[in-house]
Specification:
about 40% strand; 4 helices; alpha+beta; six-stranded antiparallel β-sheet; single chain
Length: about 130
């Protein structure tokens, strides 16, 4: 039996971000944590990696699912992935909006994917 749930998976591409910020592990970790908490999301653990010669990945394990940031300082790009499920509602969207404010990208592309619930039932019936 498949559990009934609904979730939002938000994928964002932030362009034109300051190269120094894209390579600043501490600031990115702080920005992700603050945006998640302000959106009402529960952080279980955060892991991060600073790459050589540049680039950062920050991954958060959430009670509601997961969130991540991966950066490319050489092009000023930051890729964000936030998936939340359950009663948090639009928490993923709110977290990405707050992260957008904190990182000040010049270009933004966001895709919101609804997951679970009726979509799963529709997919099972389509076969």
């Amino acid at each position: 039996m498949t559990a009934e749930f609904t979730g939002r998976h938000v994928l964002a591409e932030f362009g034109g971000v300051d190269a120094g910020l894209c390579d600043d592990l501490e600031r990115l970790d702080t920005a992700l944590r603050k945006s998640l908490l302000a959106a009402g999301i529960t952080i279980c653990e955060v892991a991060h990696k600073k790459f050589e010669p540049q680039g950062v990945t920050v991954v958060a394990l959430l009670s509601e699912s997961h969130a991540s940031i991966h950066t490319y300082p050489e092009s000023g790009d930051i890729f964000v992935d936030v998936f939340t499920c359950g009663s948090i509602g639009d928490g993923a969207t709110k977290a990405v909006d707050l992260l957008r404010e904190a990182l000040s990208p010049s270009t933004v592309r966001i895709e919101v994917i609804r997951r679970g619930g009726a979509r799963l039932a529709d997919a099972r019936g389509a076969g």
